[in-house]
Amino acid sequence: MITIYDIAKELHISASTVSRTFSNPGLVNETTRKRVLEKAEEMGYQVNMVASQLRNKTSNIIALVSLQEDWSWFTDVLANGVQDEAWKAGYEIVMLNGNSKHLESLSICERMRFAGIIVASTELGTDRVYANEVIPVVYVNRMLEDQFRILPDDRYGVELAMQYLKKMGHTDIGFINGPESSIHSGIRFRTYLEKMHEFGFPIQEKWIRRGDWKIASAYSCMRSILDEGQYPTAVLVANDQMCVGVYKAMQERGLCPGKDISVIGYDNMEYSEWMFPTLTTVSMPLYEMGKAAGKMILDRIRGREEEKEVIVKGNLIIRNSVGPCQR
Q1: What residues contact 299, with CB distance under 8 A and at least 6 apart?
Q2: For the chain, is the Cβ count within 10 Å smaller at the N or the C terminus?
Q3: What is the pLDDT of residues 193-242, one digit of tens each?
Q4: Cβ count near 302 (within 10 Å)
């Protein structure tokens, strides 16, 4: 097994310098740190993180705990942001599943003396989840006033979508929302109504439906809207996944998204640029939220606790599913 002493011998430096490179890289100059890391990779050295943290009673491991049952596109992109921020500071991350019914992962983090925990959820929530915080914690997508948290700006995202539809000449705009239980759904729908009132556009109840984030529900919603006879010139859909069902319902009637009815989604999921036509959407800024969470947990670990809340804005991704109003 390769040890720090083997690396030190190869580079003609002290073993303590090699050790600091892995345990406290900020104390090692950049040139030396780079030489050590390159030599370690060349020799196949692996840090024994558990032994290190038990020996030093400190840790350079941050846990990212997902409250979902399964890992997904959401958590993968978020994790990339956390990881990039952590690595710059010499920290590693481990990813754990700890949905709200099974929080063993959080107690494991305590027993392993991890440096900090990031608790992430795909749905906005108001429950604290982790009651006994003995190590620093940052929440992602949890609306907790007394806790450190990272939140997306759903209101801003819908405003971007509505402003773009207005720019393209649309006034008859329908809306397919997510489930009533979702806070995201509530924020997105309220913002849609506010912008319709602000722009002076008619709100037609017959063009407003509620889905459940899934393809099949949106397919049924869009068929129902089309059955009304006169249909809207544009539909804002509360997430990208439901846009797949909207496309199918339209295409079965011989209608083309972006020409006959414009469609705009929300999330910028990985497949949205592969839909036909490619989907115009608002990005859920997951990578940026991950970086913000990484920075916030590092600040907490170092005792630099400043902002308790960071709200991250997404962007409008213009593709081909929205065209000029033809009516």
Answers
A1: 305, 306
A2: N
A3: 999 999 999 999 999 999 999 999 999 999 999 999 899 999 999 999 99
A4: 11
